[in-house]
Design a protein that fits this description.
This protein has about 375 residues and is α/β, with parallel strands linked by helices. The longest helix is centred in the last third of the chain and has 20 residues. A hairpin with a 2-residue loop joins strand 13 and strand 14. About 35% of the residues lie in helices and about 25% in strands. It folds into two domains: about 130 residues, NAD(P)-binding Rossmann-like Domain (Rossmann fold), CATH 3.40.50.720; about 250 residues, Dihydrodipicolinate Reductase, domain 2. The strands form four sheets. The chain has a nine-stranded mixed sheet. The protein has a six-stranded parallel sheet with strand order 3-2-1-4-5-6, with helices on both faces. The protein has a two-stranded antiparallel sheet with strand order 9-10.
Length: about 375
């Protein structure tokens, strides 16, 4: 008989849907010992939560997250609410002995993230940050290629994360839908929302970032606030560019904006090394591009007329995660990245080797995000402690 993983999920937004889908489908695709049980959904909007519970199959509804934290029938608290609430919920959940999952970015700032790390480590509870892009098969294959030393000495890492949904000056800030534009709730703009993904992926593939210098811009200085109804200053970053140095001596460039007309969720990276390169584009998530350079091949000089990029269709059973899904040539989607992340988390619980990225890893990303924002403010290179 399967063991139960009793879930209390906080937040009925977009991320709550992706996580709920993963819980519902876990045992359909992964032969883990645990079965996710959707015990409770929590949202301050009770009618919305009731509809959500009926849609996804949660057993009950709560409007106060503290009741979930205190409940004896909850094993895992999953935090899918705006960033401003992450710290309080995670610290309380850990103190109550609950496992904790948290959407990215981990916190509003490094100080809050450190509190969260201390709480889960003091309690000794499994914890995870939902950096789901690590679970794209093509990105996981890039990690495998790097770990197999096929890239060689790294020289350059470049990342872009572009969207266009805030270009109109008529878009307001705040409220349930647009809290990402309110610095009091989000902490930062594209740096925490988008570049946190890029930074996590970069450090997973290429190691720690040691220092940064950044430039940010807020193109629309005032927007109507949904809650107050008044025009208020916009304090988040609409766009961010930064240079980075990695501990391994390589250089990095990062760019993110919500003002790239025509780009909806354009997330790319390229890593160039002495022996090869990898390139990924989330708009073609089933592919990883790989360039292999060899001076010698079977004792002979490499055949230059056959040298070029390979576009690998990452749908074979030997590619990361794909043995759990369909036949070669058939793709999985965005929602499966959360399912893969959940499966890794559950397998970590069962093996005793907890999954990555955990809160401490999320803290390292938060340090870079904070340094980027501060560097943009001071126009100075900043070292990452």
């Amino acid at each position: 008989m399967a063991k139960e993983l009793r879930v209390g999920l906080i937040g009925c937004g977009f991320m709550g849907r992706t996580h709920s889908n993963a819980y519902r489908r876990l045992n359909n695709f992964f032969p883990v010992e645990h079965r996710a049980v959707l015990k409770a959904i929590c949202d301050t909007n009770e009618p919305k939560a009731q509809t959500y519970a009926a849609t996804w199959g949660y057993e009950r509804v709560e409007t106060d997250w503290r009741k979930l934290v205190e409940a004896s029938d909850i094993d895992l608290i999953d935090i899918c609410v705006p960033n401003v609430a992450h710290r309080d919920i995670a610290v309380a959940a850990a103190a109550a002995g609950k496992m904790v999952g948290c959407e990215k970015p981990l916190a509003m700032n490094v100080a809050q993230a450190e509190e969260m790390v201390a709480a889960v480590e003091r309690a000794g509870v499994p914890n995870m940050v939902w950096f789901n892009y690590r679970r794209v098969p093509a990105i996981a294959l890039a990690k495998q290629i790097v770990d197999e030393k096929r890239i060689g000495r790294p020289f350059h890492y470049r990342a872009t994360y572009l969207q266009d949904w805030t270009i109109s000056e008529d878009v307001p800030q705040g409220g349930d839908a647009l809290w990402r534009l309110d610095a009091r709730v989000a902490g930062s703009g594209v740096t925490g929302d988008l570049l946190a993904h890029s930074i996590d992926t970069a450090m997973w593939l290429n190691g720690p970032i040691t220092r940064v210098v950044a430039k940010t811009e807020t193109f629309v200085k005032e927007r109507k606030h949904v809650v107050s109804g008044q025009r208020e200053p916009v304090l988040i970053d609409d766009a961010c560019m930064f240079l980075a140095e990695f501990a391994n001596g390589s250089m990095g460039t990062f760019e993110s904006t919500r003002y790239a007309r025509g780009r909806k969720n354009f997330n790319t990276f390229e890593l160039n090394g002495a022996d090869g390169s990898v390139y990924f584009d989330l708009e073609e998530p089933e592919y990883l591009q790989y360039f292999e350079y060899k001076q010698l091949q079977s004792g002979k000089k490499a055949e230059s007329h056959l040298t070029g990029w390979r576009k690998i269709h990452t749908t074979n059973s030997e590619h990361p995660y794909m043995s759990h899904y369909w036949v070669p040539g058939t793709c999985i989607g965005y929602e499966h990245t959360f399912l893969n992340a959940l499966a890794d988390f559950v397998e970590g619980i069962e093996s005793g080797k907890w999954t990555q990225p955990d809160f401490r890893t999320g803290l390292e990303t938060q340090k870079v995000c904070d340094a980027v924002i501060e560097s943009a403010r001071t126009s100075q290179w900043l070292h990452i402690n």
